[in-house]
Amino acid sequence: MSHELTVFLFTFGLFLGMLVFLEIGRRAGIRQMKEGSETAGEGVGAVDGAIFGLLGLLLAFTFSGASSRFDTRRQLIVEETNDIGTAYLRLDLLPADLQPAMRESFRRYLDARIEVYQKLPDIAAAKESLAKANELQRQIWRQAIVASRTEGAPPAGPIPLLPALNGMIDITTTRTMATQMDPPTVVFVMLFGLALAASLLAGYGMTGSKVRRWFHMLGFALVMAFAVYVILDIEYPRLGLIRVDAFDQALVDLHASMNP
């Protein structure tokens, strides 16, 4: 099942669940009024305010966190592009006869790095490309060490080159770990639970009307479900509708500039 369909089914289930809980709360309030309690809805404002306030706070924090991680992932793409580009330019410090082989390794490495994210959501294929890229990292590092020790190599050549290669390697770990920086599942469970609890209280508060306020019920459930959908979608920017793929063009452009 695709990520888009999974998120849609979860949020559609939340939408239906909120409508059900709105109706349950409304009927509970009407039943209490029929039993003779004309003040069924009095004195519960503090409870309603606490639940709705907590729901709003949780929505704000989860959306803010998802948006922040989305921006971080875009920034990391730019940083990796800069790191690879810097290391590639510093190959000019090596002996001329050793540069073509290393430049070819760089092009193959960049191909593998682009493939890692192009193959998502196929996790197995992405891991295969990641392993290939990691092997090419080791190969490039060994080539750089050998080249820096070759007779005739500039004595100061490794000083700017090796740190640039180290930064190029480190950013891959940072990007890989960034894809796993998602909130604990309990946060989303709590968000769903609070949305349903708020629906129950909202329905209870509608007992003053003899007719169902379908516009308000549908609007409340739809807005909440859509907000949760956006949060879940932006949390996984390689799988949903809101994506960071456009920033991969920076790596593609860098690869094009490496062509001999």
* Main sheet overview: none
Order of SSEs, N→C? Answer: HHHHHHHH
Low-confidence stretches: none
Please provide the count of β strands: 0
Q: What shape does the CA trace take? A: rod-shaped
Structural class: mainly alpha
Give the helix proportion (percent range).
over 70%
Quickly count the helices: 8
Strand content: under 5%
What's the mean pLDDT score?
Answer: 87
Task: Provide the gyration radius in Å.
Answer: 28 Å
Task: Give the distance, in angstroms, between the N- and C-terminal Cα atoms.
Answer: 42 Å
List the helices and strands and how they pair.
Elements: H1 3-34, H2 45-89, H3 99-118, H4 123-149, H5 158-178, H6 185-204, H7 214-234, H8 249-258
Helix pairs in contact: 1-6, 1-7, 2-5, 2-6, 2-7, 2-8, 3-4, 3-8, 4-5, 6-7
